[in-house]
Write a structure and sequence with these properties.
33% helix, Peroxisomal Thiolase, Chain A, domain 1
Length: 416
């Protein structure tokens, strides 16, 4: 028997709210997190809107000196990890658990790009002596895992995954495997990203990847709609506390759900475009089903990658139909990116957490901004609003530039 892996804590910092409850409430109300960019002067950009995290105060989770030095993605990671640890009952540490039985694995797609841009400006304007000694350690993507491990004294498996928009899907899946394979009893895992900067926006805009609806940001992210014209850049963090089910039950923890399976694949096709027909996405979903021991009829919901780009949404729809067959028309395929925007390396963890909440509550958030049907996207995307129905198991998809594909299989906890 494979060791089962429970979810005992969730943390979220998103454009919709600063914790899981606020984010969930906004999702069910169909709120868009999009608006004009305030993190920098975007007046000369061709895309001038994004899904920013609002009113975030890192001093709630870090001392002010540490917060001043830390890039925004590190601040988000520390906040979401704190929330998840508190919910799991680990606010004061891991108790009697040996320190090397707890690990940290946090995915980050890009890292401290705001810090990089700021320090590069200092270099150009003031010379090398103006560059901060904290630049390198606070920029590199693995520092989220490092700082969280230091905060909680977790000496078990510790590293970062960097696979573009699949980064935190990989991190959760690999943390799940670390527990299932006996390398750890508890893992703090998820993803964080904050790259709403002049360079990022200009780069994505140059490659025509983002929506250009500057006059209507709230309706710009429209996954599976025929008028979709690109994704909306977002930021945030999502974290899980994963535990061996036996360990969680022994300490009397509240179990929020289970990670049941993990699938991964490569398109081996193109730097940015999905493989024709969604062959890589299909492999990742099939591997997740097989790993979990699920059949198509077990699945009630898929949190799709659903970026609102013309190519992704159509190929993902085809991949889902190929994997689930006729059952694909019996489930809901939603994209919460219609509200959060695309949080890049944090997306897999945020959307995995949302999938766990769907299984736990039997409530499915809508996919907002639907206006015109696309014949290539012909499944139920919850375009009509919130859907209430029991969901025993869900899949959460994350696909990244470079052809990286991840699927997490999540099971509702029914007490046995």
């Amino acid at each position: 028997m494979k060791r089962r892996v429970a979810i005992t804590g969730v943390g979220m910092v998103t454009p919709l709210g600063l914790d899981p409850d606020a984010t969930w409430d906004a999702l069910l109300r169909g709120v868009s997190g999009a608006g004009g960019i305030t993190l920098f002067d975007a007046s000369d950009q061709s895309v001038r809107f994004a899904c920013e995290v609002k009113d975030f105060d890192p001093a709630r989770y870090m001392d002010r000196k540490e917060a001043r030095r830390a890039d925004r993605f590190l601040q988000f990671a520390m906040a979401a990890a704190d929330q998840a640890m508190t919910q799991a009952g680990f606010a004061d540490g891991f108790g009697d658990l040996p320190s090397d039985r707890a690990g940290v694995l946090i995915g980050v797609g890009i890292g401290g790009l705001p810090l990089l841009e700021a320090q590069h400006k200092k270099l150009l304007e003031g010379g090398p002596r103006r560059v901060s000694p904290f630049f390198i350690p606070m920029f590199i993507p693995d520092m989220a895992s490092g700082m969280v491990s230091m905060r909680y004294g977790a000496q078990g498996p510790n590293y970062a995954t960097v696979s573009a928009c699949a980064s935190s899907g990989h991190s959760v899946g690999l943390a799940f495997r670390s527990i299932r394979n006996g390398e750890a009893d508890v893992m703090i895992t998820g993803g964080s990203e904050s790259t709403i900067t002049p360079l990022t926006v200009a780069g994505f805009a140059s490659m025509k990847a983002m929506s250009t609806r500057n006059d209507d940001p709230e309706h710009a992210s429209r996954p599976f709609d025929a008028q979709r014209d690109g994704f909306v850049l977002g930021e945030g963090a999502g974290m899980f506390i994963l535990e061996g089910l036996d360990h969680a039950q022994a300490r009397g923890a509240e179990i929020l759900g289970e990670i049941a399976g993990f699938g991964q694949s490569a398109d081996a096709y193109h730097m940015t475009a999905p493989a024709p027909g969604g062959s890589g996405a299909r492999l990742a979903m099939q591997h997740a089903l097989d790993d979990a021991g699920f059949v198509p009829a077990d699945i009630g919901y898929i949190n799709a990658h659903g970026t609102s780009t013309p190519a992704n949404d159509a190929t993902e729809t085809k991949a889902i139909k190929d994997v689930l067959g006729d059952h694909a028309r019996s489930i809901v395929v939603g994209s919460t990116k219609s509200m959060t925007g695309h949080t890049l390396g944090a997306a897999g963890a945020i959307e995995g957490a949302i999938s766990a909440l769907v299984c736990r509550t039997g409530v499915i958030p809508p996919t907002i901004n639907f206006e015109e049907a696309d014949p290539a996207c012909d499944l139920d995307y919850a375009h009509g609003g919130v859907i209430e129905r029991p969901v025993a198991a869900a899949l959460s998809n994350s696909f990244g530039f470079g052809g990286h594909n991840v699927c997490l299989a999540i099971r509702r906890w029914d007490g046995e």
